Each structure stands twice: as structure tokens, then as C-alpha cells.
Amino acid sequence: MRQEIETIICLAAGTSQHPLIKAAKHAGFMVVAIDRDPEAPGFSIADKKIIESTYDTDKVLKALYALEKKHHFRGLLARTSGPALKTAAAIAEEFNLPGLSSDIIPLATEKSKLREFCEGHGILMPKGQKISQTKELDPHLSLPLIVKPDLPLIGKKDVRLVYKPSDLEIAMEYALKSSGNGFVEVEEYIDGIDVSALFLLKHGHITIVHYWDELIGLTDENFIKGIGVNVPSVIQSTNVSFDVKNVIELFGQRFKEINALLILSFRIDFSGKPYLIEMHCDLGGDLIADVLFSAAFPDFDFFNMALEVAINKDIHPIRSKTIPTCLIYAVSQFADMVMQNAIICDDAFYIQEGDLPKNLNCLNLLIDKSRISLIKMPRHEDWLKARN
Predict the structure, then answer these.
(1) Which residues have a Cβ under 8 Å from the Cβ of 378 and sit 6 or more positions away?
(2) How do beta strands 5-11 and 71-77 pair?
(3) Using CA atoms, how far apart are residues 277 and 44, in angstroms rounded to an integer?
(4) C-alpha distances in angstroms, 328 versus 43, 56, 68, 231, 265?
(5) Measuring CA to CA, how many Å separate 283 from each of 17, 44, 286?
(6) CA dihedral 69, 73, 79, 80 (to 10 degrees)
(7) Are 283 and 330 part of one and the same domain?
(8) What pLDDT, in 10s, does the model give residues 291-310?
(9) Which residues constitute the domain of residue 33?
(10) Does 105 reside within a domain?
(11) What is the per-residue pLDDT across 349-366, written as a single tens digit (0 to 9) for each?
């Protein structure tokens, strides 16, 4: 009789994957980790390692097939982005595991694909155009405009807000350098705030885990910069949260094969109308899962929840009381502004309720006191005032 070992596959074995591997081990599973770096920190606690690039789907699948006779693959943990998402979807489909499907990957990796999907399914998104040179730009797209890499290689790098026609060409040049497909996405600028939602999409049904605010600023050259994240979101327990949920439900209904945690990001204008702007499959990068959630919800174990999703268990929204928390990136950039009681973590710090006069308006910390200017972008307090 063949004996199969209950095994979790972890795609990548870097620092971000270490807590996922730890959670799987704590639950009694054997872990097979995949990474091209033989010294990846996750390998130190994984049971088996596959030293292959997470981008090389065929080699990864071949290595997993070689282990299949002795291992019962119960789930896939894939805290990844970019080209590795293709591999994550292939593993889920090949071994019939909860996870992503190949048809959703372009929406998470190419801005124009997400826009085209939204246009075809009645989901509100900023108007935009995929172009490779400025002369192709639709004259109906009027300034100001957001210029961004269509296939981003690094997060928000080289995303720029353009106010003047003379700045459009240089913005295009930067965005093209950071795009993996030779195109940029140019879209209309919507005045408002940025909110993201983490949710479980399970065969067309959604469970919202939590919302948070994205704190966004501009450099002196009008490049868009992620400053930090904040909970609770200003939309929490408002009618706007129901509108956002309706959009997520409409989105989820189109993907009946998926059983995975996803993130959708929205620009919400001053009338409260949500525009979908981004999709992520990284389980909450940017220290959101590792720092923000653990600080704001001390009784909530994010990584155990991710494991439960991976092995096809149902989950619930975060029900523990929220400790209002603001996480600010690039602590070195704001070193002279870190308040007493701020807690340093990596190159970031977070501040909680009681340490700020107005925790939900934590942007006040940063205005006019660094290279980042937040005056040019709407503040959450302004948004709240406009709604009242």
C-alpha cells in the first residue's frame, strides 16, 4: 500500500514566505518549498527544497511530479507576484488544489488587461489606453493623467501624475523602462482616496476579510509614492463599503474556478463612487500581513488563515476589535518625525491609537516636512468632510 505524506507546496522560500512555511509546519504538514536561491531563508525550515526559479513553470511542475508518488499535495501557499503567478496558477490547476486560475493572471499583471476586463463586465474603472508612444494617445483623454507601466516590473515604480503636456513624453520614457511588455497604460486621474480590500474568492462567492486605506503621496517630480497603510479604513461601516463589496462580488462572479485570497484596490472619489484600479494576488505584501494586521488585530493569525484557505477551509472576516494603526514606509526618510512610542520594523514604523492626535488623519505627520508632498493629493480627512 502506497503511503502518501500530507504536504503543502510553498512557491518561493524568501523572507515573505517564511511565516507561511512556519504556519504549515506548526499544523503538522510537510512542506516542499521552491526557490532559485539555495540560501533562501524558508529552506531552513522546509522539509524539501526545489531549487528552481518560480518563473520557470515547466521545471517547477516537473520537480513536483517527481515527488507526487510519495506526497499527497494538500495545498499551495503562493505569496508571489508578477511572472511567478503563472506558475502558481499552473500548480493549482495541475494538482487540483485551491488557488488561482490561469485566466485571472493577466488582470493582476497587466494594467490594460484589468481595464479591458472591467469595461467588458460593467465594472467602473478609470478610462485609459495602452500605448507605446505619445502620438498614439487618444485626444479624448484629457490632463491630468496617470502614466504607469502596463506590465510593472517593480510595484509602483515610475508611476507618474502628469499635469502638463510637456511632461507627458518624459513620463512615458520612465514608464516604458519599468514595463515588461513595451507598453504603458495612460489613464484619467480620479480625485479621491485609495482603499484596498482583502477577500476570499471561493467559486464565485466572496468573504471580505478587511479593508485598509492606502496612503499615497507625490514626489517633487510628481511620481506617485506609497507612503503607508492605515486601519480602520475611513470607509469601514459606511455605505461606501457596501458599494465596494458590490463591485467585488460582481468581479468574483466571473471566476468560478478560483479559491484564493485576492486584493482589489480602489480609488474612491469625493462622491463616494469606487473605481477599481488594481488587483493583487500577493496575500498582502508591503508589510500589511506581517506588521499592520498583527499590530492592529493581535488576536488574528493571518498566516494561519492563509493556510486554511490553501487547504480548502472556509474563513471569516476579522472579528477582533481593531486597534487603530498607521504603518509608514521608509523610516529613514522620516527619521526626524518618528513620534515617541512609534515602533520600528524593518525600514518602516507604525503608530497606534493614543500616539496620534488624529490617528485616521495620520498624514498630518508628513505634510511639507520631507521630499514627499501630500498636499497635492486628497487627504482622508478632506474626503470625510466632503461626505458629511
Answers:
(1) 191, 192, 193, 270
(2) parallel
(3) 38
(4) 30, 34, 43, 12, 18
(5) 10, 22, 10
(6) 40
(7) yes
(8) 899 989 999 999 999 999 99
(9) 5-97
(10) no
(11) 676 766 554 444 444 444
